[in-house]
Design brief:
The complex is a heterodimer. Chain A contains five helices and three strands, in the order αααααβββ. Chain A is α+β, with helices and mostly antiparallel strands. The longest helix of chain A is centred in the middle third of the chain and has 16 residues. By secondary structure, chain B is mainly α. The N and C termini of chain B lie far apart (about 30 Å). Classes of the chains: A alpha+beta, B mainly alpha.
Chain lengths: ~150, ~80
């Protein structure tokens, strides 16, 4: 086999010798191998065989059932909805600075929230309250409240 | 929704305002929420941005809408 690999002799020559040697056990082989490839490419198997000499990783062909659209991109479906929710998630998860209020104002606002919060507002993660001369945006942390916005009413 | 904090005509002046009002009302029928969002946005341009966001995302969560309005008012791209 080393001689074949080195190109010293061809497989056909070896085949011929084996056919003619009655002690080889291969003397009944036909003269030519059926379905023998024209060229013996050692990488043919890796590239999908000699009949389809194509890299299996280079297929750009669009086939029936392929989720991609004609432009090669994935179309509407689960991924589109994920993108939409991601936009809202991004807004929801953005870090919000807490508004620092003077001590007396903070105490008054917190007292007002705790006293007048409605059952609907308790279910919300964020709500607004008009207290005194300002409107506050309040983050509901279940056991606590965090003021993330304040605007004076004009 | 009853307007008790401000007169209706002071908040809803244009067709765009009317459209935003209906979208907000669908999300949460709460006066402080709706008037608060209107007053945060201030300009017609900002109101249009929030309308676009609500319609494109089919967003009905008032938490997200309040935060989105704050971001728009602060000039943050949403």
């Amino acid at each position: 086999m080393n001689y074949i690999n080195a190109g010293v002799i061809s497989p056909d020559e070896v085949r011929s010798v084996l056919r003619e040697d009655i002690n080889s056990g291969y003397n009944t082989l036909p003269e030519e191998m059926e379905g023998e490839p024209v060229e013996n490419d050692p990488f043919a198997d890796l590239l999908g065989g000699s009949e389809t000499p194509q890299n299996p990783f280079s297929s750009d062909k669009w086939e029936e059932g392929d989720p991609r659209e004609a432009n090669g991109q994935f179309g509407e479906g689960g991924s589109g909805k994920v993108e939409k929710s991601q936009r809202s998630d991004k807004i929801r998860k953005r870090t919000r600075k807490e508004v620092r209020l003077p001590k007396d104002e903070y105490a008054r606002v917190m007292s007002e929230i705790r006293t007048n919060i409605t059952s609907e507002e308790k279910q919300k993660a964020v709500f607004k309250k008009y207290i005194g001369n300002a409107r506050y945006t309040i983050q509901n942390l279940e056991d606590d409240y965090r003021i993330i916005g304040k605007k004076e009413i004009q | 929704m009853k307007f008790t904090l401000f007169p209706r005509e002071k908040i809803i002046k244009t067709e765009l305002d009317e459209k935003l009002f209906k979208l907000l009302l669908d999300s949460w029928d709460n006066e402080e929420f709706i008037i608060g969002v209107f007053q945060d946005l201030e300009t017609q341009e900002n109101k249009q941005k929030l309308i676009n966001f609500i319609e494109e995302e089919n967003e009905t969560n008032s938490d997200v809408i309040i935060l989105a309005a704050m971001d728009i008012a602060d000039g943050i791209e949403i």
